[in-house]
Amino acid sequence: MTTKQFKLTLRTFALIGTVLGIVVLVLSIRGPSTFPERQTLAAVTGAVAWTRADRYSVDFGLAGDSRTFSYAHKSGDRATIASVLSETSQHPISILVLPDNPQQGTAGGPFFQVYEFSSNQALLRSYDQVKTAWVSDYRYGYWAALLVFLAAGFFEYTARKVPPNNSFNPMPLRGTG
Question: Which one of 65, 76, 91, 146 is most buried, counting C-beta atoms within 10 A?
Fold first, then answer.
């Protein structure tokens, strides 16, 4: 690989890193502002009919309701929520969801995100707790964006420090001159 190609590769990585950093930063800034207001949410109550855990959430359905509901792991206290959901039909649960806005999952059909979770015994995750957990999660995006910007800066710095490949001005050999 010539010096010119090497510099071009480094600058390409720097450009990709800059674009990726901007995307992560925009998502991190925009994230908390897209969290729905409590008054726009609707309560849904019922007995748990089925559950399915995946990497990022616990999906579940309620008896007599054809919708899929999803409790994101980043909402916090997932062990308690999973425990309550595993006790199917023993007691009803109540959740808050955005009623007219199903989200599209990557592995399946549409689902409704859960923003509050309670059983007939107690409130397990309040709206404020879930919102705080999500805002905290978006703060990691700022750190990720910073790291990506630093990596892009390193690639650009390295590209500028690579000596030019100039055949008209050869580098003298060591020990000569």
Answer: 76
